[in-house]
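Writing this down once: the sequence line spells out the residues, with the fold written below as integer tokens. This is how one looks:
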Amino acid sequence: MRSSFIEPKPRAQPVLSRGRASMRLAQSRALVARVSSALWPGAGLSQAQSVAVRMASSSTWEGTGLSQDDFMQRDECLVVDEQDRLLGTANKYDCHRFEAAKGQPCGRLHRAFSVFLFSPDGRLLLQQRAASKVTFPGVWTNTCCSHPLAGQAPDEVDLPAAVASGQVPGIKAAAVRKLQHELGIPPEQVPASSFSFLTRLHYCAADTATHGPAAEWGEHEVDYVLFVRPQQPVSLQPNPDEVDATRYVTLPELQSMMADPGLSWSPWFRILATQPAFLPAWWGDLEAALAPGGSRLSDWGTIHRVM
């Protein structure tokens, strides 16, 4: 089967949404109860309420129309500890700054997700990150990599029970949102129910290739791995602010690309693609990996430490 490059096309910039105050208030009230009981059993409501309200009201965008700098300041990522327990939020800029002098040599640990989207005939869709990206620009990686955010509708904050059950509706909602934003894939072509959550990866990587040996930018994430294979080919309209190129590949084609010294790869994808127990094993038994309710390949309880 031939692989194909798909060059991004310019796309219209939709108007940002307005008047979401009432929705955020409702989210805040729901999250106050959930966070107070799940994160601080027995703690006073004021502490839980402070974090919950911030988690529910701080994210301010839908779709496109903002620059990379805008996203850095406005996107509120979900800060977690090494056990993936929610601690609060911080903006994307703060999470990705590696500043030893300020007490965060590896940024702030936060949740992320990596989508692996397969064509109906089993080829994996790759993307090359846009040259304008702040971290790891121009590198090849899996279909879509991003973060669940605070204050989104549908809610993107998954509490422990949702993770333990493998349902992770928040992570899946974030994946649907970003597939549309980065690649122009309509949400109806990738419904949240079609995603399979496989496992989590904890990794840390400074972007020394872009910013030098003392790089002040990098990634420090608990990364949720999602597989999806739509029944029909998806519509692609890559956002040039996010994606420089795309390509569908078979596993042998991917291995050939990764052997090419002229191509660069994201650190999270290189980890997943080169360790036999991860992508090679999942791709080798794709039907099992794609089972939305889980299979012998699912490992929801483990956070794989690859530092």
